[in-house]
Amino acid sequence: MTHTMYSAYLKQKHGERIHRISIDAGFTCPNRDGSISKLGCIYCNNESFSYHTKRKVLDLDKQIDIGIKYATKRFKAKKFVLYFQAYTNTYASPEVLKSTYDIIKKFNNIVGISIATRPDCVDNKILDLIQTYTKNYDVWIEYGVQSIHNETLKFINRGHTYETFLNAFYETKKRNIKVCGHVILGLPNETREMMMQTAKELSNIKIDSVKIHPLYIVKNTILEKMYLEKKYMPLNIDEYKNILKEFLKYLSEDIVIDRLNSFCPKDLLVAPLWVGEDEKFFIESL
Ligand code: SF4
Predict the structure, then answer these.
(1) Which has more confidence, 276 or 64?
(2) Which of 4, 279, 6 is nearest to 138 (CA)?
(3) Is the pLDDT reported for residue 53 higher than 70?
(4) Any alpha helices (H) in the chain, and if so which ranges?
(5) Cα(132) to centroid of ligand 1, in Å?
(6) Which of 55, 87, 183 to mutate to test the pocket of ligand 1 (most atoms within 8 A of CB)?
(7) How far apart are CA 120 and CA 44, in angstroms?
(8) Is the distance from CB of 85 to CB of 24 less than 8 angstroms?
(9) pLDDT value at position 55?
């Protein structure tokens, strides 16, 4: 594979291994709380990615302490990026967000911040706030893109269009904040050609990084119902590897790859059961 993985990017930029610590800052999501919808994206059961904190949100200092201790012991990491991962991490007022993000200032071994959010949950004030951290930190926003095709976004109930992402993207880039786009391969009704168009478009706009994973089915979701009714079949591992290989061919080589697979706790995963396979396995076969 010719692209740089995010871990290698961090090592090159900071001169040493940097570990990313995921935290749950207790935010919710407008696509779940009724502001946009109560249904959420058809594949969303947020427990699948706030599993370790079980949504009994721990004090942020404590979460960071636990993450740092674990990564120090397991990976001998000395510096860290703080990753606001669960739900929509810009879904609050700029004042609340500032007091949340400012936690990084308490830890002198945190060198970066990565904020996962929806593109319809940022505005100028929020982006101006996030820009203030770029003076001293490596700052990224990870937007859920999923697909550039509005018919797909509508079908999966994202609650926003691709144009919403584009606006957020250009406003973010104006402020010198790096952008990672989250893309899902194997979405319902998406042809191979449609997925390749997503790769080409993200290259055209010069996104900084892409996080890719196959669509997988989690318990208690609309997608699970579709799967049980045989209205949706996930990609098998060979199909995914094959599509991924071509997708990467269309993605400019200077785009950093954040991830090529995903993790889902076994007790929540319905299918395909190979999700969570060691990422090295994918990298080696590309
Ligand atoms: S945007 Fe994220 S948290 Fe919100 S419904 Fe979709 S997957 Fe769930």
Answers:
(1) 64
(2) 6
(3) no
(4) 6-14, 60-75, 94-101, 124-132, 150-155, 162-174, 192-204, 222-228, 237-250, 279-284
(5) 27
(6) 87
(7) 17
(8) yes
(9) 57
> What three-state secondary structure class fits 198?
helix
As a whole number of angstroms, the distance between CA 44 and CA 19 comes to: 26
Buried b (16+ CB within 10 A) or exposed e, 29-47: bbbbeeebeeebbbbbbbb
Q: What average pLDDT does the chain have?
A: 93
Query: Does residue 87's CB lie within 6 angstroms of at least one atom of ligand 1?
Result: yes
- Residue 98 to residue 129: CA distance in whole angstroms: 7
For the CA of 144, the closest atom of ligand 1 is: 1
Cα(39) to centroid of ligand 1, in Å? 9
**Longest CA pairwise span in the chain (Å):** 52
From ligand 1's centre to the CA of 62, what distance in Å? 25
Name the helix (H) or strand (E) containing 221. Answer: none
CA 148 / ligand 1 centre spacing (Å):
17
Is the C-beta atom of 260 inside 6 A of ligand 1? no
Hey, is 146 helix, strand or coil? strand
| pTM (predicted TM-score) | 0.94
Main-chain phi, psi angles of 212, to 5 degrees: -120, 140
Q: Which residue has the tokens 């919710």?
A: 28
